[in-house]
TrEMBL record:
Organism lineage: Eukaryota, Fungi, Dikarya, Basidiomycota, Agaricomycotina
Protein name (Swiss-Prot/TrEMBL): NAD(P)-binding protein
A single GO cellular-component term on record: cytoplasm
GO molecular function list: aldehyde dehydrogenase (NAD+) activity
Domain of life: Eukaryota
Length: 230
């Protein structure tokens, strides 16, 4: 389903109310506690789905990873399955951000910390979401499906419904419940703090998430050694 709530990183009360069991929040709370205890001023950057091809010395040297998790993992699963699939109709939405726009937040934040951090939120007020729009998982899965058809791995672009057995088979340790909770959950947020306090103005738009599917699928089928159209 598509959740109606869209989180803002300026809503400190809502973030305070999150349980420690929320994804990665137990670690967030330890970081915030370090700020409250006076060990350091802390800042937590929280991106949505990061997409795009990064560049730079660390990537060229093979030190930094060039791929993210969501769409490449789904492309791998769907290529092995022979068709794209969804759970819950794929109605959930993921906030997304291009890797270069995401890096710009880190650059702006670090620069301002070095220059004059007095006006920056930190600790409980130091969450910095990064996003520039969102896509439903259905649209993301269909884009992968269209790419699979284009390379000859699938005959249907339209995602069908993944069974519980398929989730266990293809997602391994993530299994049926965890596949739902991770990939087919809602990740909806607004990066209000970075826009307001850092002057962040992301340049890349959600349509690029969908057009990136072909390159992701090409990489997946090559890695799997699958035969594609000549």
């Amino acid at each position: 389903y598509l959740a109606s709530n869209i989180w803002s990183d300026l809503d400190v009360a809502a973030l305070d109310a999150l349980p420690p069991t929320a994804p990665h929040h137990a670690a967030d709370l330890l970081v915030v506690q370090g700020d409250e205890d006076g060990y350091a001023r802390t800042y937590i950057v929280v991106p949505g789905y990061v997409y795009g091809t990064p560049s730079g010395p660390l990537y060229d040297a093979g030190i930094a990873k060039k791929t993210t998790l969501l769409m490449p993992w789904l492309a791998d699963v769907f290529a092995r399955r022979g068709r794209a699939g969804v759970l819950g109709g794929g109605k959930n939405a993921w906030a997304n951000v291009h890797v270069l726009d995401n890096a710009d937040v880190y650059y702006r934040l670090f620069s301002k910390i070095l220059d004059d951090p007095s006006g920056l939120g930190h600790g409980r007020e130091g969450y910095y979401f990064t996003e520039n729009g969102e896509c439903t998982l259905y649209d993301m899965c269909k884009a992968i499906g269209e790419a699979l058809v284009a390379v000859g791995i699938a005959t249907e672009a339209e995602p069908d419904t993944l069974s519980a057995e398929e989730c266990d088979k293809y997602f391994g340790k993530f299994g049926d419940f965890e596949a739902v909770s991770l990939f087919f959950a809602n990740v909806r947020c607004h990066a209000d703090r970075a826009r307001r306090d850092l002057g962040w103005a992301p340049r890349h738009t959600p349509d690029e998430v969908l057009t990136s599917a072909r390159g992701i699928v090409d990489a997946a089928v090559e890695k799997l050694g699958l035969k594609t159209k000549a």
